[in-house]
Amino acid sequence: YYPEVNLQQKISKYILLCLIFTGISLAFQGCSTKKKTLPHRTFHNITARYNGYFYACEAIKDGVAKLERAHKDDYTRVLPVYKLGTESDAKGIYEDMDRAFKKSSLVISRHSIRIRDTEYVKWIDDNYLAIGISHYYKRDYFAAAEIFDYIIKQYKKEEIRYDAMMWLIRTYNENAIVSQAQMLIDMVDNDKKFPKRIRGQLDMAIADFYLKREDYPMTAKYLEKALLNTKKKKLKVRINFMLAQLYQRTGEDRKALAKLTQVLKLKPDHEMAFQAKISQARSFSGDSKGKKGIKAQLVKMSKEIKYEEYFDQIYYALGEIAMKEEDEPKAIKYMNKSIATSMENQQQKALSYLFLGEVYFKKPEYKYAQAYYDSCATILPNTYVDYTEIMERKEVLTDLISNLVTISREDSLQRIALMSEPERDSFLDNMIEGLVKAEEKRIKEEKERAERAESQSMMAGGGPGGAGSEGGNAGGSGKDWYFYNRTMVAMGFNDFRKKWGDRKLEDHWRRSTKESIMDDNFDEGGDKEELNPLTEEGQKDIFDAIRDKEQYLAKLPLTAELMQESNEMLIEAYYNAGAIYKELLFDNKSAILTFEEYVKRFPEGKHIAKTYYQLYRCNVALPDEPKAEHYKNLLFSNFPNSEYVKIIKNPSSAKTTTAEKDEIEAFYVDTYQKYLN
Known about the structure:
mainly alpha, two-stranded antiparallel sheet, 29 helices, elongated, Serine Threonine Protein Phosphatase 5, Tetratricopeptide repeat
């Protein structure tokens, strides 16, 4: 990854004699760079190498080592070929790279002997290469490319031009200059003169090119070639693991398992060994040999305290195995365990939520799917590969559930409003009694949690503030304190999550979400969460709010005008829900059920023509020709002059018909506005 210089290299007796001879000669002649005599060339070559290039390489090595230490691999994605870290990490090595730049620049300015377009100091081109590499690691790719291109053109007959070509490919890869990188790859890949000493590095650079294009077969091809020329154990481990990831993505599970076995044989570090075992589990198909053994190993690991920080990943892998075995209930159980045991690895927790969201989406059970997608969205890093698609699905599901909640709420309110007054009073009394009991249970549980937390704190130091300290933890094992006890923290966290879901750390987090899809038909007495349920005064205020019957009556559509407003909300919610099923979720069966309910309940509703048209389209898509014909006839007989009839008569005009364009645009605008609000 950087110029090779032997740290233990010593100057031979011959070189020492040359230095003595050169020193004596130059004492008389001066160290001019205008002369190409043997003493001059020897002096400047030795100085350029050992006083400049060597120290430039050491500075680059120091910087690269820092980058590699700072780099954190994301094992949910194919590992990158190079550990280049983040933009911030690159800034952290500016000092090292600037030192390399200064050393090599000084060498070039003081020791280059260029006479009649010929360079007589053979280490000058190496110092140019060091300068280019320093720019590369600083992410100054334009300057790096200029230097590498200069070396290629200026030193056409020297072997170092191949080093520059390899580094230029890497530079183009990072700068996403695809055409130039491809052209250079085509030029050097089959060049028989390409030096064997850096052939492995070239294959790595070419693999990096294809990996950035997500061409996994070609990436694997060049990594396999690079592996043949790799002697360093750590690099062999990494390449084998990357190959396993690539083969998993191309469905070649046997090859993936072979590579993972090789990784473990090389005895990698703890993190890589664990990830290899997890990847082995994911590579087993439903009937693979050895699957039972890896499952048993994972179950065993889930009970060993040394793997505690990896429990979430272990349960996730077990869930994936269960899904391959078509045991969906067990897969769901393991994913919930993964979520429950995940305290620090937010990305893993997000993936577990995503897994469950996809399970329920396919059923389809959109209410549960939305809840899991919503939790995933709050913690998923925006760098995740499918981030945009996940956010889009979450927003679609949220809008769907919002409309379904509107339907449920307005139906319930109308049902209560249409009761006789005695029936209504009795219903509300029973509802309030149920809410009071639920609140009493909640307060009791909160008190118990608070007592458990205090008990844990007391155990940690012999008192509320710890033994002999003011709020400290002196005199006890830190892991006994509540926040050091992962089990207690997990219990508290999961209790919080059950009520609130996953929430980002921010002010007014209770109010940061839009209307909860899980809200009951009433608000249970307003914003009681702001009251303290652990004090008598707080409890009194909470129960007074819950028992205030007038607040519930105020929300009922008890007049003709309010009933009409409620019906208008139902009309919009039914049509929007049906349109989301049809246009965004491609669920024609659910769309048909929703649109048919609209027709049944609101045959004179303002969207009836559009609803007939949507029912016609849904049944054509199924296909159900009799039903499609039925709704087409309803549309033709009741709305003969509508744009929808024109579209059906002349389907080729559908793309340019303003009615359909306006329909789609209006729907998206409406959906987006609802999301913002």
